[in-house]
What does this fold into?
Amino acid sequence: MSDAAVQAAPARRTFERIRDQIRTQLALGRLKAGDKLPAERELAASFGSSRTAVREALRGLEMAGVIELRKGVKGGAFIREGDPGVVTRSIGDMVNLGRIRLESLTEARVLVQESVIRLACERGTDADFDELEQSIDRTEQLTREGRIEERRRQLLQFYHLLGRATRNEVMVILVDALTDIVLKVMARDDTAPRLDTAKAHRAILQALRKRDPGRAAELMSAHLEALHGHLFLSATRTPS
It folds into this structure.
């Protein structure tokens, strides 16, 4: 093993240790959103490490969306508000890199949405369902007007509202991430919109209003499986 490799290993362990300890402080509630971390020199002294190791740890935390590095007189490293978009970017990157198969992505979406539907049926309010109906109306309007890109964004909003009706923050994050990635794949492959989407969503909404989780989940699964089949067909026709 070369001298450079021997020297690199301890340095890597040091910045990982610093990074993990900052994460632990967050988990224990000793650091909160908006808090400013001590200066690099102070962190290096408290961890008994070099400023280079501290800088590397902070860069890793910034890339993970945990902190924000600001420049200027009032700059420094600040704990960020939670960023659910990190989940979307992470899964999306793995899909684009081929680490996650499209089949696995769409299968996970069906399973998550089935749970979402059942929770929304139990916990959703009439106001939630009214918002979903307005979203469907908007989808129909954009479809008639041929505004395809806006229609894709509107579909993302429909599923977001559905996730929000579960009153479960984790479900909202998962729904937003999986829906956003699938819609981006459809946009990438120039997948033609399915004209029966609004009709399927209305049937699902009707089952939700009737508080019939079994029927609502069945309709959602059937809709997503048909949509994903449409997506796979489009992907096979897209030139490589």
Remarks:
- The longest helix spans residues 3-27.
- Strands lie at 67-70, 76-79.
- The first strand starts at residue 67 and ends at 70.
- Residues 1-11 have pLDDT under 50 and may be disordered.
